[in-house]
Amino acid sequence: MFHCPARLHGPKQIFLLVFLLACAFPGTAFTSGDKTGILLVAFGTSVPEAATTLDHIRAAYEKAFPGCPVVMAYTSRIIRNKLDRGGIHVPSISEGLDQLAKNGALVVRVQSLHIMAGEEFAALARSLLLNIKGHPGRFRAVYLGRPLLESRADARAVARAVLGFHRKKGAAPEALILMGHGQEQGRADLIFEGARATFRENDPLVFMATVEGARTFDDMLKDLGQSHVKKVVLAPFMLVAGDHARNDLGGAEDDSWASRLKAAGYDVEIRLNGLGDVPGIDDIFIKHTKDSTDDLMLEPKKP
Ligand code: CO
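Above: inputs. Below: predicted complex with cobalt (II) ion.
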């Protein structure tokens, strides 16, 4: 299904060899053997330590889709411009698609590295549609993989992975506080609440709130007060431990979550690990990439 000969665009001999190999193995239908390219799309980060998280995700994709070109694009223009000034060029969505086309990809699997389908995911889908419209016939199919939290099964898998990463067996009871992003318009608030409920079913000492969404730090603090724990562990519920994690969550300023919790008498530990650092999270994204059957170039299938 994911046919990614390494050098299909290379010398004719290699093409012939790949063709013969592809035909030699029954079940490897050459008709569906269009070269696939992967475009990973993240908001982006200008924090170098956080960028290594994204490098690991890219490496996991290269392993999961051997021979397929894998390109990572950032949607944030501010971050791309900032990195450009430092001599690091990260492609935008349209530059990423150009790179894959240049690499000979005819089928593109785009994977959203967003945590939930909020504003950023909607913008990604729109950018892709406009790009397809602007380059008719360039690709045979463009699939879009859904974000991390799409289903109850995803929420359970994410909770399992995150709790496995942060919780040590036999440790004294401590609260795990996770900072989600959220959005002022409320998009994704409900998905966030669903994820929070799933975490709480597994571990009542998990407390979740957002920087910009409906569930606030104050809501969380009230909730935390009922638990009578003294020790709290703080971690971002975002793909990488970028600016929000380093400033709004763990920063030294008086209004960071860490400072406010310390002021409220809690013993605070900050863990700067994004969700992308948690083993098993990349597998959920990869599953969404492989599961996507919705070709953006076709009308949605209707009964
Ligand atoms: Co933000």
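The beta strands are 36-42, 70-74, 107-112, 141-145, 175-180, 206-210, 231-236, 267-270.
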